[in-house]
Amino acid sequence: MSVVTVVLLGKLADLGGAPELSLAGPLDWAGLKAALPPALAEAIDDPRNRVALNGVLIADKAGLNAADGDEIALLPPVSGG
Amino acid sequence: MRDIRLLTQMFIPGTLIGPFTQANPGLGGVCTFVGEVRYDAKEQGGVEALELTHYEPLTLPGMHELADRAFERFTLMGLLMVHRVGQMRPGEPIVCVSAAALHRRDAIDAVDFCMDHLKSAAWFWKRERRAGEWHWIEPRAQDAVDLARWQT
Questions:
Q1: pLDDT one-digit tens code per residue, B8-32
Q2: What pLDDT is recorded for position A72?
Q3: pTM greater than 0.90 (yes/no)
Q4: Residue B62 maps to which CATH number?
Q5: Is B114 helix (H, G, I), strand (E, B) or coil?
Q6: Chain B residue with minimal CA distance to A51?
Q7: What is the DSSP string of A14-77?
Q8: Domain tally for chain B?
């Protein structure tokens, strides 16, 4: 089975119930949302929440394509002072 | 001399600043900022602890990019940028930025520039514990104002 790691930062970790999830891959954007708790799936559509694939920010979330061994990070806006 | 680090343990700024200053012989000025975890008054809920999370692949590379920009923008001899992650108590140092330059304005402005960007654009997520409960810290409008100062 192929595995995709999903790292959840900030308050998104609360919505996901853990700082890291292991999901069955491969995953596109719709597949990722379907595999996440509903509140988190809804939150990640917010354009302020960014997405990185293997440590690189992606410009087009909807075009996400994660394969076996890939790491997706879900990044809410950073905290201020 | 360039020293950019993330630390997981409590640090004493003086132990970094001394060697940093020594490592930039001939400097005309050194400017240092140390940020500490605020207590806040009991009436405001009193901060018991602050926790910073980061994302390894983005956070430290982002600090290096910020240092690159500081070196391009100001005439610097050296830059020290150290940031804590993990759990901290009020009064503990959380960040230390020190810049060495031939002239004071470059050193002072470089520290100001780095701090505004570290506070509002670096990849850190913070939460505070007040009365036993954790609360995430949201971005503030002032952060955008602070960043806008440098967009000329």
A1: 999 999 999 999 999 999 999 999 9
A2: 98
A3: yes
A4: 3.90.1170.40
A5: helix
A6: B58
A7: HHHTSSEEEEES-EEHHHHHHHS-HHHHHHTTSTTSEEEETTEE-S-GGG-EE-TT-EEEEEPP
A8: 1
* pLDDT of A22 above 90: yes
Residue A65 maps to a domain: yes
Residues of chain B contacting A, Cβ within 8 Å: 53, 55-58, 119-127, 136-140, 142-143, 146
Q: A79 and B142 in contact by Cβ < 8 A? A: no
Interval B37-65 mean pLDDT: 90
Our count of domains for chain A comes to 1
* Domain presence at residue A81: no
The range of the structural domain enclosing residue B60 comes to 2-148
CATH of the domain at A21: 3.10.20.30
